[in-house]
Design brief:
- The chain has about 240 residues and is of the alpha/beta class.
- The chain has 4 helices and 16 strands.
- Strands 8, 9, 10, 11, 12, 13, 14, 15 and 16 form a 9-stranded mixed beta sheet that branches.
- A hairpin with a 2-residue loop joins strand 8 and strand 9.
- The radius of gyration is 17 Å and the shape is globular.
Length: about 240
């Protein structure tokens, strides 16, 4: 299957670039052969375990498995990881050897694998393949970790966007892509990453008031205007 072949993806245009939001949380740019993902947070589970919070130690394996599936399906020429790919500076040291080998296999199979630095991984580990940059511009678009107010043609991660809507009498909350035609914030791809409601104050000033979300749920992508969204309930 090529980058463009799927009935479950949602199309959007950003500064003239035709993009596809995939249900996996990956973003595809078919014309450039690009697949972008944000916030893998590999080894988050082992980081929490080291601090006494016991989470199942399989997040890295699950995340790499999902990443391998979308790469095999889309066959991109370039993979861009938009920061916080590793949960901390010692994440690679805690990775299971089998997961290390799988990651090396993924990076070796793609012509250009790019690690964009994030606040959790300002210096991504060496020896896993790929190259490291602070940000990357391709045509009209710039890929970086954190969104910058006023930026145009920007794709970022960092905030782990999620959205909540009322559907058929029940509330649905899922990860989402958030965009306003000038910039786009990708959902977190990692298995243990969760999401922050796009109506949270952390998003203020980053997107136009009439932005829309592309919500990922049940293997499909659903489009909702900002006016349909609801905030999280107060605890």
């Amino acid at each position: 299957m090529s980058l463009t072949e799927s009935t479950c993806r949602a199309a959007l245009t950003l500064c003239g670039a035709d993009l596809l939001a995939d249900p996996s949380g990956a973003l595809l740019w078919p014309d450039e052969g690009i697949l972008a993902v944000a916030d893998l947070h590999l080894e988050k589970g082992s980081a929490f375990a080291a601090r006494g919070r016991m989470l199942p130690p399989y997040d890295t394996r699950a995340t790499l498995g999902r990443l391998a599936e979308i790469i095999a399906m889309a066959r991109p020429a370039r993979v861009l990881c938009l920061g916080d790919s590793f949960h901390d500076r010692r994440a690679a040291e805690r990775m299971d050897p089998a997961d290390v080998q799988r990651l090396r296999g993924l990076t070796a199979a793609v012509a250009d694998w790019v690690w964009i630095t994030g606040n959790h991984d300002p210096e991504p580990p060496q020896g896993l393949g790929g190259r490291v940059v602070a940000e990357l511009s391709v045509g009209p678009l710039t890929f970086r970790h954190e969104a910058q107010p006023g930026a145009v043609g920007e794709l970022s991660g960092h905030l782990h966007p999620a959205a909540a809507v009322a559907l058929a009498g029940r509330r649905v909350r899922e990860r989402c892509f958030a965009h306003d035609g000038a910039k786009l914030i990708l959902p977190a791809f990692g298995s243990f990453t969760g999401g922050l409601n796009v109506l949270d104050a952390a998003f203020d000033g980053l997107l136009d008031p009439d932005f829309e979300v592309l919500m990922t749920a049940r293997g499909r992508v659903y489009r909702f205007p900002c006016a349909r969204l609801s905030p999280d309930r107060a605890r």
